[in-house]
Amino acid sequence: MSCYLDMVDSPEHVKKLTVSQLQELAGEIRTELIQGLAKGGGHLGPNLGVVELSIALHKVFATPKDKFVWDVSHQVYIHKILTGRKKRFRTIRQTDGLNGFALRTESEHDSFGAGHAGTALSAALGMAAARDKRGSDENIVCIFGDAALTNGISFEAMNNVSHTTKKFIGILNDNEWSIAKNVGAISGYLNKLITNPRYNQLAKDFEGFVRRLPKGDLALKLAHRAEGGFKGALTGVGLRPSTPATESDGRGGYGSPVFFEEMGMRYLGPIDGHDLPLLISTLEFAKTCDHPIVIHILTQKGKGFDAALKHPEKFHGLGPYNAQTGETPAVRAGTPPNYQDVMGQTLVKLCKADESLVGITAAMPSGTGMKHLEKALPDRYYDVGIAEEHGVIFAAGMATMGLRPVVAIYSSFLQRAYDCIHHDVCLQDLPVIFCLDRAGLSANDGPTHHGIFDISYLRCFPNVIAMAPANEDELADMMFTATKATHPTFIRYPRGAAEGVAIKDQPQLIEIGAALVQQEFANNGRPKVALFGLGPMNAIARQAATQLAAEGYDAAVINPRFTKPIDMAVHERFGREAALIVTLEDHVIIGGYGAAVLELFSEKALTTPVVRIGWPDQFVEHATTQDELRLKYGLSVANTVAKVKAHFGKAA
Ligand SMILES: Cc1ncc(C[n+]2csc(CCOP(=O)(O)OP(=O)(O)O)c2C)c(N)n1
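Above: inputs. Below: predicted complex with thiamine diphosphate.
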């Protein structure tokens, strides 16, 4: 029974509860998270880690006037529960249900939408600057994870804080994990900081002081004075050289908080992020600070659920699981492998045969399948952190030295590195290989994660070779082909299970720019329709062709394989022979593959009508499954057939 959760449906209700009641509430929310997500899945681990933080934030601050800006915002489930969305919580990430991230259109309590990492500090700082300009007094609170500090934008924002505003509250939620274990020097630095015994003693003293504070202005004044002294002592810790015998961790001593201080933000912590009374006192204190402050809290990803504590990476985000044991359903026998695993396994194979190949991921070893390379050939594997821009330029640098980097990044996250693709890779015509995972919909994540813009954003750059496999065997062939190409190469493939075709032992070279004609016209005197099905839409094209043939049409099917260069000869030939061309792509219609066909037809003065099937010019919402959205937006066999029939109906 949920005694307090039943009573809470808005931040006002949170404020009315005592601290001990809120501690009970935290337990009830954990139970709701574990049970409520079991059926549909979601970001369980990160949310279990911020239960106390979310409650404390709503106890101390008052949204929607005060603003919370969450980095990535995959950890806003409790915030949603506490801001009027409790009854809909179990619909999260499902069709017509709550979005899995913060969404401005969903609630006035969601001050800034996200889904991509590293944006919160900049957005929050922008809000603080706007507040200062208009002379209002909202509190702006930015909550960012330790992995957000592997991202360049976070540093760009921190560089700006102190000369932009005096009132800014940052909360560094440090759980040592990105999706996988966090990587890089910053993660090492945070670790040093929390293990510095001398510093920790000081922090504990200050913590004890804050904890004992009575309410009232005088108490807060005292706290600020104490914090001044604390800061002085703390800087001393940073500047005093470490004594190797007692303090050396083998890498030059323990960390000091001077880094944040030098960035112009008062540093407080590390404090236990599950200690609700302490969090509340510390946030009360932060609220009255007249200088930017960052509070470093330590939390456990998955707290309160054994399986999630044991497997933080798996429980970062997952599908359905057993709410008692955390077990996930076994993959049904006969299910084809995921594209990401085919990519990873093929890369291992290619790397074994070609010394120049290396693999790069931006904090997504599992999601992209790069973990296969990490395991098989760790010295050929690089995780750069959530740093897509750096990852791409890093690859460009490697390519100038004769290496062949394979960069695997989700299509939507690669958008972050657009200029790097242009300026560092394409302009210098470097043979970097890009594997664009999640190219297509990421249905339950929604618009932040739908990777449906890459054909448009890539095909305008000179030197680009861009392909899309229709199945997993073709993915292997395309990867092999890319390793022999002398230009930047991009391969896009969707999320989830592949088609289930056998993968050849040895991948084969594909001629650059060559489409594959899968079914020629029967030349039986019936109306001729040529269906060009790109990538995963090839299967839809084939099924539509079968149905159209049964309904009296002469249907040809082509797998275009390349979106740049497109096969001029094949497109032109079918453009001349067919009465109607249909292009199908798992991508927006604007600027996509179909648009490339229209450009070609225009150049060749071909007037054959072209029906383009793809995603419309709008941000597509989230849904339980991709098929629902495909049906709704017409990326389906039925709609393809209907469009063809309508065309000929009209023509008649
Ligand atoms: C630009 C971008 N790259 C990659 C991701 C995938 N991603 C989502 S959450 C996450 C890790 C976030 O770690 P952290 O910020 O420490 O928060 P935690 O999940 O540990 O609470 C990553 C890599 C993303 N959302 N955006």
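Residues 46, 71-72, 74-75, 116-117, 145-148, 173, 175, 177-179, 301, 316, 362-363, 386, 388, 413, 416 surround thiamine diphosphate (CB under 6 Å).
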